Amino acid sequence: MLGKDARVSEMLRMPLSRRPGTTGRLRGGVVVFCDPHSYPRNVDRIVDVPGFIPAVGIHPKQVSTWTASEMESFKILMRSPKVKALGEVGLDFQARHMEKQEEVLRYILRAYADPAKPVILHLRGPRGNEGVAYSRGMKLAKKCLDKTQPVQLHCFNGGSAAFARWREYFPNVYASFPLTKDQKRGLKGVPAEQSLIEIDAPYLPTVDKNPFRRLLPWQIKISAASLGFLAPKAKL
Ligand SMILES: [Zn+2]
Fold first, then answer.
1. Please, is 218 exposed, middle or buried when counting C-beta atoms within 10 Å of its C-beta (0-12, 13-18, 19+)?
2. CA 58 to ligand 1 center in whole angstroms
3. pLDDT of 117-158, one tens digit each?
4. What is the pLDDT of residues 166-180, one digit of tens each?
5. Which residues have a beta carbon within 5 Å of ligand 1, which is an ion?
6. In angstroms, what is the span from residue 59 Cα to ligand 1's centroid?
């Protein structure tokens, strides 16, 4: 059984009840640590496979309970040369404390954003109005980030107009999509070269009912095939 601090190499060795029926080689990915309660003490130990890189952030749902010691851990992790991306950070209108969320996002982007490291943004609007988060998030990002900043809009479902507005100001913007019907619709408005594939653990159900009750890196291939980036095949 995989523990909380399972290494990427261990996850890749885990047998699945059903292998992803797709072509394509899994060459790497970004492993996101944005829950301060489970920040790893040593990212190098956990993200131990070439091609995989860690990102560190603070999820907007967690900002109201972010403690001084967790903030200290965040700062220590950000100093690791192995951490090559900042995130998730962002705004979530379905959580509380919007003022605090904005304050923390502003602080983190100003203090830690680096045009050499992508920023992974979680922008979730109130139910039925996703556009609010993308416009408010962009307003804030414009004040804090360089125009050349690579930005990933994670779990993107803002539609083509919102993506075009982001791209106009931040030409290095990307949208990433997990395997859900909503995101499949959103994908239509984003050029393929600015689209990324993701699995969003632990919020989305596993496609494969593996006994570990968590998403494993292999499942990115199932997402990729479902979103049309890989041709589904009977076997690997
Ligand atoms: Zn998120």
1. buried
2. 10
3. 999 999 999 988 889 999 999 999 999 999 999 999 998 888
4. 999 999 999 988 766
5. 88, 122
6. 7
